[in-house]
């Protein structure tokens, strides 16, 4: 009989990991160390502790190998300037009265085509500062537009979090992407409402900040709009072949993101005429994926601790005691783990690995469970112990105090996304 670690040991391990991350210890080491301490506190010996960690890290290897493959696509989109071209195109085509919508939509699309949300914010931030200075908008308003758009795009993208949600519940990446579309569009709408409501509040962007952020040196080398869209459109088409084929009775067309994303990225690279940059772009993509992969390995370790504990059982018991509908376990687990790690991808991995079996036992279909967990993870994934909080603040030169003011607005947007997903996939 396998050893069951007490629930409080899992909480101690996770809390310790968060404290160590706040103390600036590398998140991977923090998560692994928290897992070790949690196991030992729970009564496991050294051998049992190591087995728990190995089991947990092995469970995320499917996600890791897909993320490594996605690095080719991400490198091409970011380093070729394709993502920046798409952002400029969307914002330029929108009239001034729709500028905040344009910024949110641009960030949503950039994230949706496979760019990490912090990178998407960095790409759109100079454009956002220019728009804010010209229209008298506040920094908080434009960051809410960028962050909310990024959250919406993150649940429909072939990013690590979507791959993790699909892998965790045994569905395809494209199913997870398409399933998040309606919640994402609703999140975009809420983002625009919130950003417009506060556009005249707080610190305004000055023309000096606009000028200091402007960078026209790359404009001449950016690909055309048509070429920039080739890779993401091709990726979506190839990923859709499987579901579309099944709908008409054709099998054998179910291409995994492991194959699709690098193929689409390389074809896009050739069409943009940058084949001589293949080594540089793939190296950059791998470099950008490496920190995420390392964190995911750490998440796998502490996920092993949580899975080996009775924490999920205790939470289900509490929900039953309080008469909380069992369907809410999926979004709640995503919210809790996303908040605990301040990371969408890490939160999804912990939620699927630790609560996945309990969620499926309630009778929820794997696709529905994946969407609800995934959208739950974006509700409070922007807290100060995560990197996104700081990267997004630096992108618009925002103070820590002002960045803290954004958390509530971002949570409203994230909660709206999770609520719509829960209504569609859990109630209807």
From TrEMBL:
It holds the Pfam family GntP_permease. This is Gluconate:proton symporter. InterPro entries: Glcn_transporter (IPR003474). GO terms for cellular component: plasma membrane. It comes from the Bacteria. The keyword Flavoprotein does not apply. It comes from Aerococcus urinaeequi. The chain crosses the membrane at residues 6-23, 30-54, 60-78, 98-129, 176-198, 228-245, 257-273, 293-316, 328-351, 407-427. Coiled coil: none annotated. The keyword Transmembrane helix applies. Keywords: Membrane, Transmembrane, Transmembrane helix. GO terms for molecular function: gluconate transmembrane transporter activity.
């Amino acid at each position: 009989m396998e050893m069951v670690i007490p629930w409080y040991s899992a909480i101690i391990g996770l809390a310790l990991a968060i404290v160590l991350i706040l103390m600036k210890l590398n998140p991977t080491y923090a998560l692994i160390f928290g897992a070790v301490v949690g196991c030992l506190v729970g009564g496991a010996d050294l051998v049992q502790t190591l087995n728990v960690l190995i089991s947990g890290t092995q469970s995320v290897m499917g996600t890791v190998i897909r993320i490594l493959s996605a690095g080719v696509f991400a490198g091409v989109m970011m380093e070729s300037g394709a993502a920046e071209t798409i952002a400029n195109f969307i914002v330029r085509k929108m009239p001034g009265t729709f500028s905040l919508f344009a910024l949110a939509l641009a960030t949503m699309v950039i994230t949706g085509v496979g760019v990490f949300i912090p990178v998407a914010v960095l790409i759109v931030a100079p454009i956002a500062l220019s728009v804010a200075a010209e229209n008298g908008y506040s920094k908080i308003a434009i960051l809410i537009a960028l962050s909310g758009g990024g959250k919406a795009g993150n649940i429909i993208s072939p990013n690590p979090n979507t791959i993790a949600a699909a892998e965790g519940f045994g569905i395809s990446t494209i199913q997870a992407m398409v399933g998040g579309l309606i919640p994402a569009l609703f999140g975009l709408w809420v983002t625009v409402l919130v950003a417009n409501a506060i556009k005249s509040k707080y610190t305004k962007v000055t023309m000096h900040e606009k000028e200091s952020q402007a960078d026209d040196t790359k404009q001449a080398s950016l690909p055309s709009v048509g070429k920039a869209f080739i890779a993401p459109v091709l990726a979506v088409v190839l990923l859709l072949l499987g579901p579309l084929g099944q709908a008409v009775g054709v099998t054998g067309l179910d291409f995994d993101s492991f194959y699709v994303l690098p193929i689409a990225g390389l074809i896009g690279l050739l069409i943009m005429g940058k084949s001589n940059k293949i080594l540089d772009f793939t190296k950059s993509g791998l470099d950008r994926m490496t920190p995420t992969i390392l964190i995911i390995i750490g998440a796998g370790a502490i996920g092993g601790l949580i899975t080996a504990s009775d924490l999920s059982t205790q939470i289900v018991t509490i929900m039953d005691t309080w008469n909380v509908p069992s369907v809410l376990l999926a979004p709640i687990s995503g919210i809790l783990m996303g908040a605990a790690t301040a990371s969408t991808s890490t939160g999804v991995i912990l939620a699927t690995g630790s609560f996945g079996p309990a969620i499926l036992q309630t009778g929820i279909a794997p696709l529905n469970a994946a969407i609800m967990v995934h959208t739950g993870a974006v509700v409070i994934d922007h807290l100060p112990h995560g990197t996104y909080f700081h990267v997004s603040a630096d992108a618009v030169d925002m103070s820590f105090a002002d960045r803290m003011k954004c958390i509530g607005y971002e949570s409203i947007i994230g909660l709206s996304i999770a609520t719509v997903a829960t209504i569609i996939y859990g109630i209807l």
